Amino acid sequence: MRLTGISVAASPGPRYAGHIRRIGFVSQLVLLN
Hints:
It is a single chain. The protein is mainly α. The chain has one domain. 85% of the residues lie in helices and 0% in strands. Helix 1 (2-10) packs antiparallel against helix 2 (14-32).
């Protein structure tokens, strides 16, 4: 899922990349907790 997130983020642009990064980071925290 991490690789797909990076690839998808690279396609749309830096704007979406920031949001996807945030979502991915939050999702990781949730999974860890």
